[in-house]
Amino acid sequence: MIEYFEQLTQEEQEDLTDVIRLLYRQTFLLERKFDKRAGRLQYQREYRICEKHIDFLKMYFQIAGITLCENVHLGLIYIQDEMIWGEKLPRLATIYILLLKLIYDEQMASVSSSSQIVTTLGALNGKAGDFRVLRSIPSPTEMKRTIAMLKKYQLIEPLDLLEELNESTRLLIYPCIHAVLQGDAVREVLESFGNSREEEEETLGDIG
């Protein structure tokens, strides 16, 4: 493995090191990301580098007990371990991730020819209402903070300005969401969220 690395040019070694650091930092690499200036998805250089050296990288991460996964169909490369997130996610972020996964799966099932799935903040909060996982609509500040966090992890890309956040704000759901949970498991987790909230409300009602 060391021999493979040493045979690369200095530029290739630096590129590979940058990709490894990037995967540790953000978990996912997308083949294409949305470019607001161009108004379309653009191919990512880091993904091509990772794809070129995929066998080496799989062995490299395996030493640390980490699995490097590749989904060619979705244009997605990611590392998988017991703790995929580098920080503890707030409740709203967790709920939004589960709902986004559900929306992604539903739209992919009806439009299987495209991995570009777009939803709105209103539809996301509407799903939250369907599963009764939120007591009320989150504050604009909390929603902005959560959307920014999910963008950081490359799960979504806001297509409209966050400063003008409203129910019509469009969210492009990246294929990274595919690596969260299977559809049935997502529904079970969401239902458990809803049940725990109802139990909490009943307890508070009894106290009152």
Structural summary, described in words:
With 208 residues, the chain is α+β, with helices and mostly antiparallel strands. The protein contains 8 helices and 8 strands; from the N terminus they run ααβββααββαβααββα. The protein has 2 domains: 2-80, no CATH class; 91-207, Arc Repressor Mutant, subunit A. The chain has helices spanning 2-6, 10-26, 45-52, 54-63, 91-110, 121-130, 140-152, 183-207, and strands at residues 28-30, 32-35, 40-43, 67-71, 76-80, 117-120, 156-158, 170-173. Helix 5 packs across helix 6 (121-130), helix 5 (91-110) crosses helix 7 and helix 5 packs antiparallel against helix 8 (183-207). The termini are far apart. This is DUF4194 domain-containing protein.
Apparent shape: elongated
The overall average pLDDT, rounded, is 85
Number of domains: 2
Q: Flag low-confidence runs.
A: 200-208
What share of residues is helical?
Answer: 40-55%
Number of helices: 8
Q: Find the structural class using helix and strand composition.
A: alpha+beta
Organism: Coprococcus comes
Protein name: DUF4194 domain-containing protein
SSE map:
Elements: H1 2-6, H2 10-26, E1 28-30, E2 32-35, E3 40-43, H3 45-52, H4 54-63, E4 67-71, E5 76-80, H5 91-110, E6 117-120, H6 121-130, H7 140-152, E7 156-158, E8 170-173, H8 183-207
Antiparallel strand pairs: 1-5, 2-3, 4-5, 6-8, 7-8
Helix pairs in contact: 2-3, 5-6, 5-7, 5-8
Protein name: DUF4194 domain-containing protein
